[in-house]
Every structure is written in structure tokens, then in C-alpha cells.
Amino acid sequence: MIVMKFGGTSVESAAAIQRVTGIVRERLARRPVVVVSAMGKTTNRLLGMASDAAAGRREQALKQWAELRQFHLAEALPLATETERAELEEFIEEHFRELAELLRGLAVLGELTPRSTDAVASYGERLSCRILTAALRAGGVAAETLDARQLIVTDRRHTHATPLYAETYARLAAAIPPAHERVVVLGGFIAATEDGVTTTLGRGGSDFTASIVGAGLNAEEIQIWTDVDGMLTADPNLVADARRVKTISFAEAAELAYFGAKVLHPATVLPAVEKNIPVLILNSRRPEAAGTRIVADAVPCFNPVKSIACKRRITVVDVRSTRMLMAYGFLRRIFEVFDRCETSVDLLATSEVSVSLTIDDTARLEEICDQLRGFAEVEVEGNQAIVCLVGDNIRYTPGIAARVFGALADVNVRMISQGASLRNLSLVVAEQDAPRAVRALHQEFFREVDPEVFD
Question: How many other C-beta atoms are found inside a 10 Å radius of the C-beta of residue 169?
Fold first, then answer.
């Protein structure tokens, strides 16, 4: 059994869905379970109309609703057989009627709560998995839709829910037997609490769903189908000659995902790691491409760096207090503030009386600063970026920092941090300098590459 996840760009149109149908058909012997994202930019459009409705822009919200409804009908109905077309049309119409009622309710309340956000956002995947099922059936594939909200059980933290794994795995095993004869299609990203209230796993959570499903079913492989040939040595938008990474370890992939590599959701690898299930990154537009294979163990390679990631829109917070000289508890007090404000920290650099740290979520920055100023001086600097070099060999290779600073001789480095795993070296630079920094580092570390690991 394999799990195949198709992202939004892989199902963005009728033509894209037909490509997906062909890819699935070629792998029927491996008994695929398919996890699908919303079509194209549907989730963004859903959240946009929800915000408009809650802000009192009711007509604008309903206009977006009408456009999205027409888009789904136009792309979906030609994919279905004549006998199933009417049923599919009614399914789409019913879901858009529900969505319209929800938008009207938001307009009356004038508030968009996390629970309402999840309810609105869920419609994209609910629609796309039913549409893909119809397309598969029209292509001669026996397929059925399962509602992910009946299988993926989470806590009540709306918009960023955490799965309850024991219950989820039990439901998956009961619903999808190892020798299932039909292709099972379910929506990624969406889930529900134990009492059935819709939740979501956070943006990009369809990857996470695929990993959860793969782990719960003890799949032989999890395939993440996207619009690139796999993980690359750098963002190809920044580095034109970026190389494909053939094989990479789970630990390296997790670091890259966390620090900005958009191919993979940061949490994706966790359930797969626990079950030692390989994850493949593949291109739905070029299914013949080999992609990238993510495996449990470190991959031998003579290059110290596997890839360079870049995370933009970073804010640096400097906290300083001479009163804390020779005192203990300074870091505890700082992190209690971030804990109360539910804001995670990416990088940290400390001295006796000051701490510099980075965050990418500034929603509660003002509140954080107000609390920190109760015991320290605070300065904030926005428009920063984290450039992160990742590789299992970084820990074993002397002179890495010297090579980094040599390559960045004309770039001002705001902070530097080597992760506790010793497999990443991260720098904070001005956001405007990030592209130049990535290109310079790529030139330094990928002049020659190990042919067993890179293309």
C-alpha cells in the first residue's frame, strides 16, 4: 500500500486532475490511498471571502463565492461520466449553499473566530476529493471518497490542531483495510475533534495528513506530488543552477522544511519517521522524474551541505537588562512571555545581559514587547531573513563558518546560530540581502557535488 498526496497545483484545473488520474491509474497494483489538497488557490479565496463577510463586506464576499462556485462547476463537471455528472453537480451546489449560509452568519456576527475559520477553510478539500473521485471513476478506476473529518481526530486547537494519534490510527485501520480494492480518496488538511467539530492542521497540512495516513496504515511509501522535481540545493527562483537532491535524511528534510523549504510541510516527516516509512517528493507535471527520496538514516555524501533554505519575513527581538547581570532566571522570564503569547522562537543568541531571538509570527508582537518591557529594554527589527545551511556533515567538517563568512564578505550578518542538532548553520540577514547571500553560499558549497546524492 502507498499513500499519494497531490497538492493544490497538482489539482488546480480539469487538465491537472486528468494528469493525476493517469498517475494514480499507473500505480493501482500498489493499492494507493490518495490525499488531495484544495484546487489551486481555493483555500486563500475561501479565507478571503470569510474575512470580507465578517468585516461587513457581504456583497464582496458573495461575489467571491459566486466566482469560486462557477470555477468548481466549470472544472469539475466535464471530468465526470454522464451518469455521475448530475450527482456531482448536486454535491457541489449543496456545499456552496452551506458555505453561503456560513458567510451570511459571519456577516451578522461581524466576527471570524478560529472555529469559523476552520469551517470555511474545510470546503476546498471537501470539494476536491469528491471531484477527483469522479474523475478517477470516469477514467475506469474504482474509487471512493472518505471524509477525513471522520478519520483524523484532533484536539480543539482550531487552525493548528494536533492529531490524537491513537484514536486516528484506530479509525484509519478500521476504515481502510490493507487489501482494499478501491482507490480511497480523502481530503488533506481537514480533521475533526472527537465530538465532530471541524478542525484543520494548519496551512500546508495536506502533507501532514498524508504522513498520518501512511503511518496509521503502515504504508510502504508516502508520495508527495507537487510541481517541482523534488528537493533542490536552493530555491530555483534564487539560484538558477540549483541541483536536485536524490536522497536526503529525515532529519535534514525536517530542518529544511522548518527553515523555509516550501516543498514539504515541517510536520510531515514526524509520523513517517516513527514508522520508518520513506517519503518521496515527486512532480505531477513530470511524473517520469525520479524526485527526492527521504529516508530515516543519514546519507553518505562528500558535500558538507545538502541544501540552503531561506525563510523570509523574520523579525528580530533584542531583549537587554543590566539588572540581570549574574542573576539567574532571565531566560525563563523571557520564554514565559512567549509561552503566554503562544509565539514560537526560531533562533536564539545570548550574552550575560541580553538575548536576541527571531520570530516569524508577529500577530502578538505588541503584547510580547509590552510584557518584556516590564523587566528589560526591548528593540525590534523587522524585514529580516534566515538563511540556513543544512547537512548531516556540517557537524563533522571543520572550517564551515570560515567558508560561510568568506562567501558573505559583503553581506552584513545580524545573527549566527548552529542548531542543537549540529546539522544546520543559520544566519540572519536583511531580507533584501537574502537572495545575494543564498547565491553566494550556493556558489561556495556546490562548485562540485557528489554524483550519488545530487543531479
Answer: 20
Which set of grid coordinates corresponds to residue 20? 493525476
Cell of 284: 505531477
Distance CA 401, CA 392 (A): 15
Boundary (domain end) residue, out of 193, 227, 261: 227
Instruction: Assign 156 to helix, strand or coil.
Output: coil
**Contact call for residues 20 and 4 (beta carbons, < 8 A):** no
Angle between helix 58-76 and helix 82-109 axes, rounded to 10 deg: 170
* pLDDT tens profile 29-55: 999 999 999 999 999 999 999 999 999
Look at strands 153-154 and 198-200 and give their pairing. Answer: unpaired
Going by the DSSP 8-state scheme, the letter that residue 341 receives in this structure is T
Instruction: Express as a percent the part of the chain with pLDDT over 90.
Output: 80
pLDDT digit string, tens, across residues 108-140? 999 999 999 999 999 999 999 999 999 999 999
Q: Which of 118, 197, 127, 183 is nearest to 155 (CA)?
A: 197
Residue 331 gets the label, from left (phi > 0), alpha (psi -120 to 50) or beta, of alpha
**Minimal CA–CA distance to 33: which of 238, 169, 187, 170?**
187
In angstroms, rounded to a whole number, what is the distance separating the alpha carbons of residues 16 and 131? 12
Degrees, nearest 5: CA angle 431-189-91? 130
Contacts of 83 (CB under 8 A, 6+ apart): none
Q: Which domain holds residue 335?
A: 307-445
Domain of 74, CATH number, reads 3.40.1160.10
Residues 6+ apart with CB under 8 A from 411: 429, 433, 436, 437, 440
Number of domains in the chain: 2
Crossing angle for the helix pair 42-54 and 58-76, nearest 10 degrees? Answer: 160
Instruction: Judge contact between 128 and 42, C-beta under 8 A.
Output: yes
- Gap between the Cα atoms of 245 and 262, Å rounded: 15
